[in-house]
Automatic annotation (TrEMBL):
Domain of life: Bacteria
Protein name (database record): Paraquat-inducible protein B
Any single Pfam family the record assigns to this protein: MlaD
Keywords: Cell inner membrane, Cell membrane, Membrane, Transmembrane, Transmembrane helix
Domain Mce/MlaD: 39-128, 152-212, 281-380
Annotated localization: Cell inner membrane
GO cellular component, one term: plasma membrane
Residues passing through the membrane, by range: 12-30
Species of origin: Cardiobacterium valvarum
Amino acid sequence: MQEPEIARNRLSYLWLLPVIALGIGLWLAYSHLSQIGPIIRIAFTSAEGLDAGKTKIRYKDLEVGTITHIDLSHDLKQIIVTAQMQRTAEPLLKKDSQFWIVKPQITASGVTGLGTLVSGNYIAVSPGKEGERANHFVALEEAPQIQNDEEGLRIHLNTDSTEGISVGTAIYYRGIRVGQIEQIHFSERYDHITLTAFIHAPYDKLITTNTRFWNVSGITFNVGANGASLEMQSLETLVRGGITFSTPTTLNTNNIPAENGAAYTLYPNERATTERTGFRKEYYVVYFDDTRGLNPGAAIYFSGIVIGAVVEVHLLYDEKTNKAAVPVLIEIEPERIERVNKPEGSENRNIIAELVKGGLQATLDNGNLITGEKIITLNQYPDEKGGFRKDAYSNYLVLPSRPGGISKLTDDLGTIVATVKKLPLEEIGENTKDATAALKKALDTQAVKGLGTSLDKTLKQLDRTLASVQKAGDSTDRALKQLDQQLKTLGKQLEKTLYGIGPESNLYYTLQETLKTVQQSMKSINGVMRKIDDKPNVLILGE
């Protein structure tokens, strides 16, 4: 009987299928796990348009994450969205990264987010620049006008009105769009409006310290001596509004490139940029001993240039101190003072505060002597450096002041009296008596007595001559010639007398000074005589 042939047990190829499937599964699991990034949480004010498991997070339209959970915060004021990010999105998650919901929106700048009508809303992300990584963020309520990775220059424009301007309003240079408005908000004191603007690179190089911005929204109509003019930048600015700028040629030729955070004035129109109007105002309080004649609207001068005005003058009674106070509220336009040779990082310094530290003080002066109106002048006193102090009756700072006008005159007289009191008057009186005695002794000499007789005779002749000049206009020429001859005689007599008196004596010095005076009088009379010779009726008809 033939033995059966026993076949060897071999591994079937079918067993390779599970192995391959397991390998593929492991590879897929590894691939999935390797792509899983960090889990982040984003706080929103509303969950409108968000759906867990469906709403995506995108960066430049590339999917980088998915929302997994949507919950309420503990205080029930916010919506906390948990999202699973991809590993490739880790560089996007910086401390200052921005998140916002993209949805269809119509603004002054145009229509955005139309693609979401088909794909649905999504969350956009803009990477931050800070190196520190973060996992918790607060979403923006609206899409930012400029993203963090945009290169350019961010500046501030100060204005009193935002007519025709809104977030997203374009900034033009010679008709080309170079930037836009990011934010609009009030200043800390609510006295003006600040616009945050962004200028895209490479146009940011056009902005210097002398650049001036103005509003080109709508239509500007002007009527002047040259007729009427109608100005309109373009149809786009008429509908959407706009801002433009230029760098004029001024005395300050140092056009230094602007730095981030630089502040400028936004003028209402181009003409205002040359008229130097529309400056940002700062308010201060100043006190004077007497405010008589100071009215609201009075000008404030600094080095002869108007830089502000008086807003109001109040009379207060302090019941705590039982005293009256008269605070004067003033407004100053510091941008009228153009800063030059500025050190680096000094753009945001308060120039008025810097001047006060250097001794700037306010003085009440006469503006009109006829009406009695007063003005305020600002002057620097380097020897009296000071600073601001808080006003006891308002939230403003007090500008240092000093007496002026009548008050200053009173103080000056007081200083003169104090100085006179310090003089050694008794000693001066004794010295004067001694000098008088010495002079009397010198006059007793024979030469001086003779001189006295001659002087007395000559002076009498002078008196008669002057009387004749006053009585007769027609004999003026003859009288003046006679006066000139007598003065010459007096001069010769004084010269002869001086030869007999010692140069060291006080009398010699006194007579010498008298001789000089006589000689000057002779020169004046000669000039008058020449005029009379040229025009005899000059004394009657005048020149």
